[in-house]
Design brief:
about 45% helix, four-stranded parallel β-sheet, alpha/beta, about 190 residues, 6 helices, 4 strands
Length: about 190
Amino acid sequence: EHAVEHKVAMAERSQLEYFRKIAASATDGSTACALQRPAPSGCVFHMRLGEVFTDISPNRTAAQLWHGRNAAGDAYRESFGERYIQTRAYFERALRRLPNGTTHAIVVGNEKSLLTFASDAPSAKHRKIAAAYMRLFLDWLGQTGLRIERRAGSRLSGYHGADCDYLYMAQSHCFVVSGGSFGRSISQVVQA
């Protein structure tokens, strides 16, 4: 068991170093990603959408996912997909920790996104729930006084698009992570 934990830790460190090198070296705009950097006064909010909504508990609504399972706003965690979806309470806590001088939120996420290895494409029902969840988030965020900028993700196909999103988000001065290892590794790069 300890050997497995050690291998996972080494793999995560290797991945983190790889992306740090990419982010540090890709500054001249010559990459296929059309490299841009978030403004220092912006905070990037990574929204995990798309295929994670295919694996939520049956009959779960966007409002339930947004508000949580109790008065404290604790997230639902009954299904695999729900592990990636954060509640309003989570984002309210993140908002209180934004750096001074933050004037706008850069929202990175696309309700229609689908990872290339995902086995189930979002159905019309799941896309509708994801879009409603995003509307709830954006409506709430709009009431905070922050200017909102949307970034729907790269248009490059396959993993190239995710790599470009990673490069963009990893260069932010402020990053609010959603669920999953992709966002956690970006958070580690931003904090470094």
